[in-house]
């Protein structure tokens, strides 16, 4: 009787091994699907913010939001996402994407005066961006220069009152 039990146990072991092999094979076949689902979940924005928005977005209250949007498009390659004008044409809210960041802006008005702001932006070529900014009507705050840190940085002020610090990492 003892020998019969050992034989029975030996028969179960290969069956368990075969099942484990089948499970591994099945796992390999479905692994890409699981990986795709996991990646999709990671890409999905949390429910508290729009997809493809960073957690922090500068909000600029400027004099002449339309001109600021044009400036950002010409100089920094901004893409306009939204624009909500009031009946008089004043921009109550607008959004542009610069690289991986959404910048929100609006025209100043009663109770919301234009506020001078400072924004730092990394660009691929600080010298070319600086020249485009001047050609688009900005005034120079500082020509691009390499100082003690790893960036070459310059500054310009647009017609809406925002100072844009532009930099390229150069080591």
Keywords:
four-stranded mixed β-sheet, 2 domains, 171 residues, 3 helices, 8 strands, alpha/beta, single chain, 32% strand, 2,3-Dihydroxybiphenyl 1,2-Dioxygenase, domain 1
Derived structural class: alpha/beta
Number of DSSP strands?
8
CATH homologous superfamily classification of the largest domain: 2,3-Dihydroxybiphenyl 1,2-Dioxygenase, domain 1
Which band does the percent of strand residues land in? Answer: 25-35%
Q: List the domain count as a whole number.
A: 2
Put simply, the count of helices is 3
Form type: flat
CATH fold type of the largest domain: 2,3-Dihydroxybiphenyl 1,2-Dioxygenase, domain 1
The level 1 CATH classification of the largest domain is: Alpha Beta
Sequence of secondary-structure elements: HEHEEEEHEEE
Radius of gyration: 29 Å
Q: How far is the first residue's CA from the last residue's CA?
A: 79 Å
Helix content: 25-40%
Biggest beta sheet attributes = 4 strands, mixed
List segments where confidence is low: pLDDT < 50 over at least 5 consecutive residues. none
Mean pLDDT across every amino acid position: 85
- In order across it, which strands form the biggest sheet? 1-4-3-2
Which CATH architecture of the largest domain is right? Roll
Description:
This protein has 3 helices and 8 strands; from the N terminus they run H-E-H-E-E-E-E-H-E-E-E. The protein is α/β, with parallel strands linked by helices and 171 residues long. The chain folds into 2 domains: 44 residues; 111 residues, 2,3-Dihydroxybiphenyl 1,2-Dioxygenase, domain 1, CATH 3.10.180.10. The strands form 2 sheets. The protein has a 4-stranded mixed beta sheet with strand order 1-4-3-2, covered by helices on one side. Helix 2 packs antiparallel against helix 3. The mean pLDDT is 85.
């Amino acid at each position: 009787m003892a020998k019969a039990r050992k034989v029975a146990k030996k028969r179960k072991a290969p069956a368990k091994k075969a099942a484990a092999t089948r499970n591994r094979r099945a796992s390999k076949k479905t692994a890409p699907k699981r990986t795709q689902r996991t990646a999709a979940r990671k890409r999905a924005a949390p429910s508290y913010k729009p997809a493809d928005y960073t957690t922090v977005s500068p909000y600029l209250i400027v004099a002449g939001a339309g001109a600021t949007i044009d400036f950002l498009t010409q100089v920094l390659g901004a893409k306009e996402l939204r624009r909500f004008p009031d009946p008089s044409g004043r921009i109550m809210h607008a959004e542009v994407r610069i690289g991986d960041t959404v910048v929100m802006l609006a025209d100043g008005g009663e109770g919301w005066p234009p506020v001078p702001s400072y924004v730092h932006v990394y660009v691929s070529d600080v010298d070319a961006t600086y020249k485009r900014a001047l050609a688009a009507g900005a005034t120079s705050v500082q020509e691009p220069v390499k100082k003690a840190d790893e960036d070459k940085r310059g500054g310009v002020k647009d017609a809406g009152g925002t100072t844009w610090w532009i930099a390229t990492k150069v080591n």
